[in-house]
Amino acid sequence: MSFNDTELSGYLEIFWQFSWSQWLMFSLITNVLLYLFSIGMYLFIERTCNKDVLQEKDHPVTKSDFYLSFLTVICNSLVMLIGVFLWKNGWIELGQKYSVKAVVLEVIALLLLMDLLMYFFHYMAHLPFIYKLLHGKHHEHISTNYLSLFVLHPLETIGFGLMMLVLLMGYDFSVISISVYLIINLIWGTIGHLNREFFPASFDRFFVGTTRFHNQHHLDETKNFGFYTSIWDRLFGTYK
Ligand SMILES: [Zn+2]
Ligand SMILES: [Zn+2]
């Protein structure tokens, strides 16, 4: 089984023809929709899931969180535009392997590599002077809410995006793998900032970065720097 590649190249051709103003619109609309999807999903799970509560009270949603989360959406759009620029200029090439097996392998590679890169950058973001400047705002949320995932300093958002673009320059991932990875990233981030556990307790044993895992990082900032998995924290002795 494989995705229909002639049809896909047809779509890519349409995107290739986009003008910059069309790209600007496209990236803003896509990122606003993803933002709304995350908030909707968060609220839906909060209301319907009756699993263990990790922290009794949600962090209050403030006006400044709203502004900052919207700035994150703008930064994500900017990263997308940089990606398009790199693609149009041949720095990023899109792979053509569309078989299910190839996509699964590429997505796993993206998840593990990004998890490792994020581990190091997240660890560095907790060095006192960088923390004060960049990452402290995210940690004002000790318990979390539906905006916590997006309450980031613009440089954190752009840094995350650039990290991914560097990986895309290093290997020709297909557009399907990249999209699947980005959707998993969004869903993971949304679930990771719930105040109730979403995953079965046994998942912790399988190195999954569960909600409990990231929630613990908000409670104890010296532990759990990874995101999708607990592999790197276990390896480097920062797992809790
Ligand atoms: Zn942190
Ligand atoms: Zn967090």
Task: Describe, in plain words, how this protein is organized in 3D.
- This protein is mainly α and 240 residues long.
- It has nine helices and no strands.
- The protein is globular, with a radius of gyration of 18 Å.
- Bound molecules: zinc ion (2 copies).
- The site of one zinc ion has 6 residues, from helix 5.
Average pLDDT reading: 92
Number of helices: 9
Q: How much of the sequence is in beta strands? A: under 5%
Bound molecules: zinc ion
How do the SSEs run, as a string of H and E? HHHHHHHHH
How many structurally independent domains? 1
Protein topology:
Layout: H1 5-17, H2 20-48, H3 63-88, H4 100-125, H5 128-139, H6 154-170, H7 175-192, H8 211-219, H9 231-236
Helix pairs in contact: 2-3, 2-7, 3-6, 4-6, 4-7
The structure holds zinc ion (2 copies).
Would you kindly provide a brief summary of this structure?
65% of the residues lie in helices and 0% in strands. By secondary structure, it is mainly α. Bound molecules: zinc ion (2 copies).
What features would you highlight for this structure?
single chain, 240 residues, mainly alpha, 9 helices, 0% strand, globular, binds zinc ion
